[in-house]
Amino acid sequence: MKEVFIKLLLVTLLLVVFSFVYSTEIHAAVASYQPDEVTMEYGTVYTGTVSDLYYDDESLFVTKSTTTQTYKLAWWVSWDIHVTKSSVTRMTLTYKGKSSTDAANDEYISLYNFTKNTWDVVIQRPVLTEAVTSVWRSSNATDLQDYISPDGQVRSRIYNSARSSVGTYYRYGDYFNLEIEYTASNPRITLTPEMVNMEYGTIASGTPYDMSSEDENYFVVNADSTYKSAWWTSWTTGLDSKTVTAMTVTYQGKWSTVTNALWLSFWNWDTGKWQVVLTAPSAVTNKKWIWTGSDWDKIQHFISASGEVRCRVYNSAPSGAGGFQRYTDSLEVSFEYGANRAFTFATIADVHHPGGVNYQQLVQVINDINNNPEIAFVINNGDTASYSKEEEFNGYLYDIAALHAPIYESPGNHDVRWYCSNGLDDFRMKMNQQGYVMFDYEGTRMIVLDTSVFMENDGAMEPYLLTWVENSLSSLSTDIPILLFGHHPELNVPLRRELLAILADYNVKVFLGGHQHTWGHSVDNGVTWAAVDDVKGNSAYALVSVTPTHIKVRKRDAATKITREWLSIPRKKTLRNRLTMGSLAVNQSTGNVTVTVEAEPSFREIVKVEARVRGYANFVEFQKTSPLLWTGTIDVSFYQPSLPKGKHFVEIVATDIDGDSWTLYEEYIWTSTEVTSLWEFASGGSIQSPPTFFNDRVYVGTNNGNIYAINIGTGEESWCFPTGGEVVSTPAIYNNQEQNLVIVGSADRKLYALHAETGSLVWSYTTGGAVLSSPLVHGDKVYFGSGDKKVYCLDAINGNFNWSYQTEGLMRQRPVIYNDVLYTVIRDMKLWYAININDGSLKWLTNADTGNSWMPVCDNSPVVTNDQVWVVKPDYTFSTLHAETGAITWTHPGSDQFSARGAVAYGGIVFNASRKDIVFAWDSKNKSVLWQVDLKQAENDIQYKGVNSGLVAENGKIYRISARGRVNCLKADTGEIIWEYAISGLPEINFWSTPHVYGSYFFAGGLDGKLYALQIPE
């Protein structure tokens, strides 16, 4: 007992010292916070949760030390304060707890120093088997600067250990609290009682006005005969509950004797019940208790529609204790509020409307949204249609017309991939919306992006959209919350990291997408990327509440009417860790990369940095060489697949003390003696079609509507011709004695003929639809397809009309002419057409018996040789049709599935690549396989994966580019790989169009809007 007495005396003296040093009274607003979560460092949780630390009520959070020498026990908690760091004038830390033994070493209670990234001990106390309360308080400016993070977080750690003779021990935590005093920046009202309604007991003395200040003038009540005492008070505040940012209640009082705990409650106007917010033990001395709510969701229920607030104070006593009196010295309730009102909207995705009307799943969602008057608007994240058919859009528009709220539409891949013969224009015209939009609502910026890529499955960010975003945000405060929307939430979407770079200094909270047909989310560089479940299969959608304090995303099931909590993201701007490249050196003989990276001074310490090349192979952990610098060398000799020379990127991932990751990508080049990167031309719009080389210039169209001529020697623009729509058409050259023309189509419904030297318009021809196909110049004629579903023949010299043939779909790819017959693939249910070029009459039409789902598989340019038309069928098989009849004459045996971009012929050999990245060569006469080469080095190898790029044959060689930019050059006669080269150092898939080779030049266009040029061996 003597030892225990001495320890208690030491604790008392310690607390007296702290109280004496920081005893200055500061008159300011006050707030009290409960810990957010517990993070274990040493030991394990034995019983209880973080909620057991909320109140001084002997409900215990019990942790167990490590069970081997040395015996340690450490955990830490965090609090997020609701005000700015600069407004805090004093902070108080209170911990109450005990130990299973008093023989363990002292407990060290620390605060995290965000300036030094260290734990600073503020309380050292002996462990006791009896509960002891320890308090640390400070108004010192240095302490406030160090112990509060820039975005308002405070952390405290409790650590101790034990000698081997003590062994395993337990810590019993009862109460852990942070209290601050601050100068309120938001408007604030303070309420004290003016009346009370007695529920249990009677008034002994005093009036409600005695509770207006802490002056020991008490409002005293007697318990009733059942040993209960309860009264409640109310106020008419005039508050708008949708603007409240924080609520604090302060209660001070005492009891005539020890009783059961006090329950302080507020009336919940939604549930119609009293809701306890604070429990406090009784005491015979005057004590103060504070509770603060800073999550709008948890406090808005306490304010009625008319602004009424009710507060109740209740406690009881065991029957053996008898009657008691409760002395209330003060009761104060304060509310803070701002200018922004809470609002709710809905996000839907993946409707996949089948056509017709009254689509059940969509109707369920619409009715459910209509029954919620709180929903201000709806954002549709795309895949509205199943196969981009007109009847599907019509059915959707019919059903969605019943929606009461306004809706913003963005396209998904299913809206622009199948039967949209006019490309994105079909979606825009049907929806009567652009597909991307930016608007403000109650102090929040909404950015709806179009991540779709015409005729493709995966997504991308258009370069011109990034420019639009950047320009639109130039005058926006960086504290305003930003919410992003689009169909594709995946991390490998091209230009996604460029978008994040633009938004790095802004308060971006979340990207909400679809595409994955399930709920899911990840966090990248502090931004949450979330996928919303589908309407199609689950009648699901997201309910998003933007409140004065948080962004809450909830899962809603329209069929079962069940709402589930999902994401909670603070509204205020949180600071993010950042990495900067110090140095990057490439060993040109081995390809090994030595990197030094700087972790900018951060408020959450970086504890690990690791890196790898090109996003595969294991990470290499870097060494910390100074407080902010990390260095390491990446050995690429063991990489599988092996790393070719060319452009690559280093992926650097830093992990902070919270376990959050922060990523940096840095491009570099490993030079080759065979292949040289000449230049990259940034066009401002994604490139989806091959460029064309002619007379020392390369011509290319982009999705920003421009046609460019680029000087082959410098990579600089020679001229630019703007059209009125996307250009996904490969330019054709008409080489005439009078003048050389560049002929190309645009989504503005025109075919253009431009002067090859100057870019001036020579002629244009307007069709009834978007001209998305690549024109073919044959003799003095040009052949092309249009969104009006016609195949046209014009005079190349002047654009005069010769003939057109009406099909049932879009001709997207360049056709082939063989023996005066035009062979082409049309995006309809029949697919294969042969048209006489002399008069435009149909020679034959072959029905592929395809289903909707696989129609894009067949969208390729056919190869015609030896009277055989080589095509990919809807089931991914490779076949030949008889050039005269259209009858299927042969199909490649086996289970191989082939590329959608089709084959290429050279020297009597036909080449094509399978979906498993195997290049095949067939004898065009007898269809035998001459050779096959597997480009990938393992089944899970994604580096050679080609999304939709076709093969190119030139000078006895076959060229192929993968989606991630690996270029292979193979011998046409043997399949031997001559060389490999990485054309770009991008972490995302980027190359979906077929490259162009001319002599010693290799060109490839990317979804990043760049045209890449290589010098290659002839």
Count of alpha and pi helical runs: 10
CATH homologous superfamily name of the largest domain? Metallo-dependent phosphatases
Low-confidence blocks of residues: 1-27
Oligomer: single chain
**What is the fold named in CATH at topology level of the largest domain?**
Purple Acid Phosphatase, chain A, domain 2
Helix content: under 10%
Structural class: mainly beta
Report the mean per-residue pLDDT as an integer. Answer: 92
Query: What's the level 1 CATH class of the largest domain?
Result: Alpha Beta
Strand count: 74
Characterize the biggest β-sheet: 6 strands, antiparallel
The fraction of residues in strands falls at 35-45%
Can you walk through the features of this model?
Helix 5 packs parallel to helix 7. A hairpin with a 2-residue loop joins strand 72 and strand 73. This protein starts with a helix and ends with a strand. The protein is elongated. Strands 1, 3, 4, 6, 9 and 11 form a 6-stranded antiparallel β-sheet that branches. Strands 12, 14, 15, 17, 20 and 22 form a 6-stranded antiparallel β-sheet that branches. The chain is mainly β and 1018 residues long. The N terminus is likely disordered.
